[in-house]
Specification:
By secondary structure, this protein is of the alpha+beta class. It folds into three domains: 154 residues, no CATH class; 85 residues, Helix Hairpins, CATH 1.10.287; 149 residues, Heat Shock Protein 90 (2-Layer Sandwich), CATH 3.30.565.10. Helix content is 52%, strand content 14%. The chain is built from ten helices and twelve strands. The strands form three sheets. The chain has a five-stranded mixed beta sheet. The longest helix has 58 residues.
């Protein structure tokens, strides 16, 4: 089952269950409130009746003839005009208020009992009046001699609704049920629209993922939303862009690696063929030339392996207390010959009180050696290389700058990529393998630091290495 059907079905079930529960709850509340209203209304009528009966009893000392004029059709107010023995049909009509009118309600049962439980009056005429309930729930008829009787009306005797109250409750329940079903249908329609709105971009993402998996890294998802799904689409497009960029870098790396390997292999093959054909003699000089090419291949393979190991983090860092000045001085010592050959002046401006780093000295030597090697290749004849090192807060910042050619501004970040050369025309003989700075960046990252390159004015390049004092 698709996600769209699952969400739509879940929405429909939740909405339907909620509507039914709401309708039942509203119906129960309406019934409870209606019963409370009817009970309060009947209580008011019972108190009015008890007051009239109390006056009648105080006047005549008996209830004889009090209910002769009581209209069973309109029991809300007893009609009593005359006292005992003044003829049937009289009763307490004379005590009725002039503006009293029959109630519009369906006649409710009226029961009056004396304190001993004897039934004095029962408008239902059943002869089975619940005297005990009337005494418990009814309104006492008070006289000057004490409680003369108890009167109960309607729901005080039987809590069941009837007549207009029941009709109103049924109509209200039907209205609640119809409105609940209508609201449920509207909610289901709105939920279906929301489901479509949610699942459509997800389906677009699924189709895009299929195309990415098939190798089409240029495909993007067009989802113009500012919610979580829009954020997911943006992240997906960013991932696709990264995959596309990585694929381009992979192809370029393979191409560059093939180019770097092609030249020494071609030279080796050509020289060996010449020796086999007798064109070149198999002597020490020719064998030394072949050995140089093999050495270059070995260096390239070793650097490629070091690059992969640095990026994968498989080479362990042997961290120890590492003073920085000796590492920098040793890196310059490794390049003393080319520095002397190009008559390059070296300036060291290193603070004397630098605290030691928690770092791998061999890996840091590799970093600074690669940067100095790059500086030596690009510094101008009789130029200058300057190294500065200072503490800035919880970090040590090392700057290595050289005079000479600068890097195009758009390539300042790319010089840390594999096989990158700012001048594509450089050969591997004077431009290196293009892996040293890439390896240096990965080593600095593993130490928790940063490395960057900036052009100097009017010419030259400065490399800045920032390393934390502790990790």
């Amino acid at each position: 089952m698709s996600l769209r059907l699952k969400l739509a079905g879940s929405f429909a079930l939740v909405i339907l269950a909620g509507s039914i529960a709401a309708a039942l709850a509203i119906g129960a509340v309406l019934r409870d409130r209606m019963q409370a209203f009817v009970l309060a209304s009947d209580g008011d009528r019972a108190r009015a009746l008890a007051s009239l009966l109390g006056d009648y009893y105080n006047r005549y000392g008996t209830f004889e003839g009090a209910f002769d004029g009581f209209s069973p059709g309109f029991p809300d107010m007893p009609m009593m005009r005359r006292g005992p023995g003044q003829g049937r049909g009289g009763g307490m009509m004379g005590m009725m208020r002039p503006d009293a009118r029959p109630s519009a309600r369906v006649p409710a049962r009226v029961v009056v009992v004396d304190p001993r439980g004897a039934v004095l009056f029962d408008s239902g005429g059943t002869g089975a009046a619940p005297a005990g309930e009337v005494i418990e729930r009814g309104v006492p008829v008070e006289s000057t001699r004490g409680i003369a009787a108890y009167a109960a009306v309607g729901s005080m005797i039987d809590p069941r609704l009837r007549g207009l109250e029941l009709d109103f409750l049924n109509s209200a329940g039907l209205a609640v049920l119809v409105s609940s079903l209508a609201a449920a249908l509207l909610a289901v329609a709105a939920g279906a629209a929301i489901v479509v709105q949610i699942t459509s971009p997800i389906k677009a993402l699924a189709r895009a993922a299929e195309r990415i998996a098939a190798g089409d890294f240029r495909h993007r998802v067009a989802v113009a939303r500012r919610d979580e799904i829009g954020e997911l689409a943006g992240n997906f497009n960013g991932m696709a862009a990264s995959l596309e960029e990585n694929e381009l870098l992979r192809r370029k790396m393979v191409e560059d690696a093939a180019h770097e390997l092609r030249t020494p292999v071609s030279l080796l093959k050509a020289n060996l063929e010449m020796m086999l054909e007798g064109v070149y003699p198999v002597d020490r000089d020719n064998l030394l030339s072949l050995n140089e090419e093999i050495t270059r291949l070995e260096v390239l393979v070793r650097q490629l392996d070091a690059q992969n190991s640095a990026e994968a983090g498989t080479v362990p860092l042997r961290r120890t207390e590492c003073p920085l000045p000796p590492v920098i001085e040793r890196a310059f010592a490794l390049h003393r010959a080319p520095l002397v050959a190009k008559r390059v002046a070296v300036g060291l401006k290193i603070e004397t009180d630098l605290p030691p780093l928690n770092a791998d000295p061999d890996r840091l030597l590799q970093v600074f050696s690669n940067i100095i090697s790059n500086a030596v290749r690009h510094v101008n004849e009789c130029g200058r290389i300057t190294v500065t090192a200072s503490r800035q807060g919880s970090e040590i910042v090392v700057g290595i700058e050289n005079s000479g050619s600068s890097v195009p501004p758009e390539d300042l970040e790319r010089i840390f990529e594999r096989f990158y050369r700012s001048d594509p025309s450089r050969t591997r003989n004077d431009g290196g393998t293009g892996l040293g700075l890439s390896i240096s960046r990965e080593i600095v990252r593993r130490h928790g630091g940063r490395i960057r390159a900036d052009n100097l004015s009017p010419d030259g390049v400065r490399f800045t290495v920032t390393l934390p004092l502790s990790t």
